């Protein structure tokens, strides 16, 4: 087991990584006032564990899936907290994937102006990325994460035991963010290349989790509120990923991150920002995880980028793209040029098939 | 004019006090991206000023009154922000009383995980109290301020020109909080006693505003997130005030604070925590502002205190009460004893009439 610490001006956040971290966490719960939030999938699989661990604490089960990331779900949690007699002395436990973590985290930040929060991510994506760093949110008016808060969990429990029950698609989704870290961090990149044939291997995934969290922890400690540009680097691939996610919906967030990274990598190549063997290797890694889908309406989908909160102006699109090993760059493009380029890349992918 | 600064770990907040502060603020707005929130009363009276000052900025008008402090109103603001193309570069301007400040402040904290916020309080209560210190909230399930955030406004513009259009009842409401400061701060207490016959006088109110804000600023700087007990002192009179406010509704927040302070002052006397001339003077000041109403169901109303977020346990009621000049104390009582005592005080008031 390994502890990673993020010290921000607002809160110290400790991430306990490794096998056995959940068991250890469970041992220290006696007498604590907890309110547990989970989703229908996790509850179905882990109901016994939840009942054994959290005993009489209220458990709020939301419907699994991105479609739950609404203020209606959020208010449902907050009402349940009030109705079950929760006070400022309570701790919200978010047990689940990114959606549960985002909504329950926001609920914790809002309830009585903020109660303690513990994240227990159960998917690969939430373990390596979304449970760490305090970003919480729900969507509104078809805008991803339109309303939210920066709210650090006091503790994060990252136990690989939860990965064992994950479908392959969920692993793929987590690999989306892991490859993103590869495009930001030289050591992770080298490790990924050296293990490109065993990316889906459980032992490998266990070993790569802590380095990814450590990378994110360093970034968050330097730019908790996303103000100085450092944290923005974690959005590599996300501009196009989010736009496609809004438009096409069917795939999961991590898959869209991979697709977005692929498209934005090609834009980076076109602009001479990235190239050579490095670009080829990144494409190879992406190819090991996902087949690029064929999109007919890519231009229309790309238009959704204008609602991305990463853009201060709706007429300009900002993207974080891979540059070279351990280095990324920001590309800003007029919206119309961006839309046209995304359309061209989609055409190219179509022709290759 | 006078500037008061609050420096917290999260944000520096500058309060510009005095005549002319709004005009000065208005001069510096060119090119700023603003989203204005106000209420139907303020809009009716100041429509010309708003249009002249904020020109083409979107203006969101909520219905005046405490009943607007709901998540529905909050979501309405956030949707309007999205629809009018607001980005992270926008600033929310809260122009109005406490309700506008609370909701618009929460909207600013949530939009894209937080945009800049300027508070322009237009009532005496919001000028001396609620616009300063970063507490934002809406009610839920009949629980006051059940969901909210600590979110400091970058600037607060406190201009007495807005007081000129206020009905007397609103002045009374602000005096509720001003007398609360008197019960916490020796200098304010002395000033209030020396001016007890001109509490409603505009010049006097102008002169007492900055000292009240300075008191609050000192408290907030020492305990922004309401954690170490210092900020809790600002809740003097509020436990019973909030309970009555929830149950009886008709009066305004500041009036209930006065009523709550009166009841809790008597509890403090019963427990030997407060007494003598000091207690008499506080009662005299309260009496100059409001006549104690006769309540038949005071016990029932008092029960609502168990939903107060100031209580960590629903079976115990915590109150901040006056002790002696410049000193307050905390009284904790079992809920049933508290309810019984409130009933007795209400009976006494009834008999005296």
Report what the structure shows.
The structure is a homodimer of 353-residue chains. With 353 residues, chain A is an alpha/beta fold. The first copy, chain A, folds into 2 domains: 2-165, Rossmann fold; 168-352, Up-down Bundle (Dehydroquinate synthase-like, alpha domain). Chain A is built from 13 helices and 11 strands. In chain A, helix 5 (124-130) packs parallel to helix 6, helix 6 (168-182) packs across helix 7 (186-194) and helix 6 packs antiparallel against helix 11. The A-B interface holds A 9-10, 71, 75, 78-79, 82-83, 85, 87-89, 109-114, 135, 137, 140-141, 143, 145-150, 225-226, 307, 309, 311-314 and B 9-10, 71, 75, 78-79, 82-83, 85, 87-89, 109-114, 135, 137, 140-141, 143, 145-150, 225-226, 307, 309, 311-314.
In short:
The structure is a homodimer of 353-residue chains. By secondary structure, chain A is of the alpha/beta class.
Topology summary:
Two copies of one chain form a homodimer.
Chain A: E1 2-7, E2 12-17, H1 21-27, E3 34-39, H2 40-54, E4 59-62, H3 71-83, E5 91-96, H4 98-110, E6 116-121, H5 124-130, E7 135-140, E8 143-150, E9 155-158, H6 168-182, H7 186-194, H8 202-222, H9 238-248, H10 253-270, H11 276-289, H12 298-303, E10 316-324, E11 327-334, H13 335-352
Parallel strand pairs in A: 2-9, 3-4, 3-5, 5-6, 6-9
Antiparallel strand pairs in A: 1-2, 7-8, 10-11
Helix pairs in contact in A: 3-4, 5-6, 5-8, 6-7, 6-10, 6-11, 9-10, 10-11
